[in-house]
Structure formats: C-alpha cells, structure tokens
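Chain A, query sequence.
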Amino acid sequence: MTTIALTPILASGALQFAFEKATLEGKLTIGALIIVSLFSWTVIITKFRQLYRARKAGKKFFEAYRSTRDPLDLKRRGEEYDGAPAFELYYAGAEELEYHLQNNPLQVKGQTKISSASQDSVRLALERTAGSEALSLEKGMIVLSTAVAGGPFIGLLGTVWGVMETFAGIAKANSASLTTMAPGVAGALIATVIGLLVAIPAMFAYNFMVTTIRALTQELDGFGSEYLTQIEHKYVDNRALSEEIADALKVGAKEPVYAEALN
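Chain A, predicted structure.
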C-alpha cells in the first residue's frame, strides 16, 4: 500500500520534468537552495551529536560529582567527562580554586581556605566558562534559523521569476493554451517545493535543538550556583571580622614566644 502511494511521487518523474523545464534563474535558485540544505544538514548532524554527547556525559558527571562532598575530589582523582558542559565549568572553577589555595592560602583552625576576594575570582572563572559553553552550544544555530526563514522565500523568488518568464513567453507567442503554460509553471513551482524541503527539516531540528540547548544552559547556570556554594562552605573563610581579629592577635602573641625559643 505504501509503495502504491509513493509511486506518483517517485516514479512519475514529476520533479525531473519540472527541473528540466525550469528556467536558468530557477535552476540557479535551486542550486542556492541545495547549498543551503547542505550547510543545514551538516549543522543538524553535528549539533545532534554534540547535544547527545553533552547530555550523556553530563549525566555521568553529575552522578560522580554528587557522590562526593569535596568540590575538588573529581579534579584530584583526575576524572574527565569530555563533552559535558558542566564538567568544563567544574574544571575551570577547580583550577582557579587550587591556584588560590596554593598562592593565597589562609590557615583557619588547621584548614587551608581562601578569602572572599579569591572566591570572587573563582566566581568570575565560572561565569566566563559558562558563557563560553553556552556560545559553544548555540554555535551554528544561525544556519538553521536562516534555512527555516530564508528557504521558502528563496524558493518563492524562483517560482515568481519562473512564472513571470512563462507569462512573458506566452505573451510573445500569442498562445495561452494549457499545453503551452504547463511546462513553464511546473518548472517554476519546483523552486518552492525545494525551498520547503530545505526549510521543513531545519524547522523541526531547530525547535528540538533550541529546547535542548535551553535546558542545558539552565542546567549549567544551576550547577554554577551549586558549585560556588559548595566551594564557599568548604574552602572560603567565612569568619566574622571580630573572630579574624581575635585569631590574628593570638598569632601575634605567639610569635615573640617562638622568637625567644629560637634565641
């Protein structure tokens, strides 16, 4: 039953006949649409792979990250989750945090921590990486939006031009029979058909990908806040000012004792 239904489309040669009867301008329009379609399908395939990998690797990363309470645990174990935007965010924050733990450490009750100023540097690293990952996810989407919006209009241009050529030819020949008009009209309409064939797959792919990218971006923003909060709880010096002054005085009082012992 399906074969019989497809026969009028595939076996009748309607598209081939229409293409053969298309004007030069119509064929140039179809050529432009084919180029747009090639770019569109390249982006569709590439983005599908990227988004699939991002979701799969991201799921594994979140499972591993939430199985530990130390924000630096995965970094110290050397685990990697290539393709997961959240992991890139995590790694950038972990590198910045480790830098400040090594170069600007604060000793608080026997634990190495960082100051609020160093925490701001970690926050900037997270925001910068989040923006970069969001741009990476959205890269190439302009091609699909152009195919969706421009494909039908490019096809319509070819159709209108072809119809204009057909009517001009009829006027010159002083013949308005259906046999005279049909080939030219068919050749003109194929441009619109190709334009729709370019736009329709791009439209479905674009809507799906935009929704997926939006979800990944929101997930990225949520993880950035979660990660920064865990860093603050574990590694940031949150003592009150009075407590910092008291601890500093204690350290200052001990230093002369140590100096006398050395003498």
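The chain has nine helices and two strands. Strands lie at 106-108, 111-113.
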